[in-house]
Amino acid sequence: MTPFLLLIGYDGRGGSEFWQGHGIRIEMGDVLGYGQAMEQVLEEYSRDPSRLKEMAREAGAFIRENYSLEAEKQSIVECWEKILGGG
Question: What is the DSSP letter of 13?
């Protein structure tokens, strides 16, 4: 079995763009909802994991495309240019 990572949790109000189809979002403090989501994921995985694996694969691709080291460097440069009045 090939391991994969599937996110289930609260977006922290700063990662909402990630949750658009890339994970299972739970409202902050919703412990029951978290447990129910975990139960549903485990049931689906035991029946047919293909949708969950595809969701995890797409999440990985999204992260690599949008949060690369190069993208982070460019974001920092753009921020400092704005702060210093150069952009």
Answer: T
Q: Would the pTM of this model clear 0.70, i.e. be above it?
A: no
The Cα–Cα gap between 13 and 1 comes to 34
List the chain pLDDT tens, one digit each, 87 residues: 566 778 888 877 766 666 677 788 888 889 999 999 999 999 999 999 999 999 888 888 888 888 888 888 999 999 999 999 865
Residues 6+ apart with CB under 8 A from 6: 23, 24, 41, 52, 55, 56, 59
**Token duo for residue 61:** 């691709």
Q: Which residues contact 52 (CB under 8 A, 6 or more apart)?
A: 4, 6, 41, 44, 45
